């Protein structure tokens, strides 16, 4: 049951991200402004929540990525991804088609539906 619920949650998140990408690419200006006003605060709060969970502990290890047997020094991959996507922006390497295949995720579900 947990596997099914997990897949439903993952699919819902991927579909939401695909929808937002589609809107960002193809929406008219008034629609885009409306979406930006409603979604940007939600996305920034989501990033803040995720990053807060990955704050380093007093030894400089990520609390989430570390285990009893293997410590992950900060910044962990979540913080590095945040930096690449939120700060470096256009300078960050873009995922390739090969990368999307390796992760098991298509670059966009909507792209295959056209």
Please characterize this protein's 3D structure.
- The protein has 114 residues and is mainly α.
- Helix content is 65%, strand content 0%.
- The chain is built from five helices and no strands.
- The longest helix has 25 residues, at 2-26.
- It is extended, with a radius of gyration of 17 Å.
- The two termini are 33 Å apart.
- The model is unreliable at 97-104 and 106-114 (pLDDT under 50).
What low-confidence regions span 5 or more consecutive residues with pLDDT below 50? 97-104, 106-114
What radius of gyration results from the CA coordinates? Answer: 17 Å
What count of helical segments does DSSP give?
5
What class, by secondary structure content? mainly alpha
Largest sheet: none
Layout: helices, strands, pairs:
Elements: H1 2-26, H2 29-53, H3 77-88, H4 97-103, H5 109-113
Name some characteristics of this structure.
mainly alpha; extended; 114 residues; disordered C terminus; 5 helices
């Amino acid at each position: 049951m947990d596997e099914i619920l997990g897949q439903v949650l993952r699919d819902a998140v991927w579909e939401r991200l695909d929808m937002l990408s589609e809107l960002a690419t193809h929406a008219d200006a008034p629609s885009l402004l409306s979406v930006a006003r409603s979604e940007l605060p939600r996305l920034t709060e989501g990033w803040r929540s995720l990053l807060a969970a990955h704050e380093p502990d007093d030894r400089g290890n990520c609390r989430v990525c570390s285990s009893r047997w293997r410590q992950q020094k900060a910044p962990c991959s979540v913080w590095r991804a945040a930096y690449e996507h939120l700060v470096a922006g256009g300078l960050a390497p873009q995922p390739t088609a090969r990368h999307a295949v390796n992760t098991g995720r298509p670059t966009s579900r909507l792209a295959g539906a056209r």
